[in-house]
Amino acid sequence: MHYPIGLLFDLLASSSALPWNITVHFKSFPEKDLLHCPSKDAIEAHFMSCVKEADALKHKSQVINEMQKKDHKQLWMGLQNDRFDQFWAINRKLMEYPAEENGFRYIPFRIYQTTTERPFIQKLFRPVAADGQLHTLGDLLKEVCPSALAPEDDSHHCENQLLY
Q: I want to staple 150 with a disulfide (CB 3.0 to 4.6 A). Which of 6, 9, 30, 154 is the partner?
């Protein structure tokens, strides 16, 4: 129920139709089935928490801590209002690869699972191997969830895990 909308779309959409019809109810919220979001401010706070978590992994929180409150607001408003230029003017700072520090410390990632008791996998993953080679997405998957990759002579693939 609480997977990100993009993940749900990837899991459920077909090429011919959207995966769901949305019905908005204004009474009798299903408190037992869903977490109630109290306000837009709560969504913004969750988004900023995720941004801060990712920056802590990538840059030791240096980038987000150097930003002003207006930068945080611009990042959020750009996302909320679908204004890429407004969003990217701030987000690009979070995506810059600090060459003088040999790049990002860790790569923030989360793999959502639909078949296990753990709803997602999240662990520290360095972008560069001990021998200096850059890791690929395949390297990450091999390390954190090898079951997602089928051996070359195997014809079945795991379709219950998505990386975001």
A: 154
Residue with token string 């996302």? 79
Q: Are 122 and 109 in contact (CB under 8 A)?
A: yes
HSE-CB for 151 with a 13 A CA cutoff: 2
* Dihedral sign from CA coordinates of 7, 162, 87, 60: positive
Strand partners, 112: 120, 162
For 65, half-sphere exposure in the C-beta direction (CA atoms, 13 angstrom radius) is 8
DSSP string, 46-80: HHHHHHHHHHHHHHTTHHHHHS-HHHHHHHHHHHH
Per-residue pLDDT tens listing for the chain (164 residues): 567 777 778 777 777 777 788 777 778 888 887 777 888 899 899 999 999 999 999 999 999 999 999 999 999 999 999 999 999 999 999 998 877 767 889 999 988 877 767 788 889 999 988 898 889 988 999 998 887 776 654 444 444 444 44
The phi, psi pair for 60, rounded to 5°, reads 60, 30
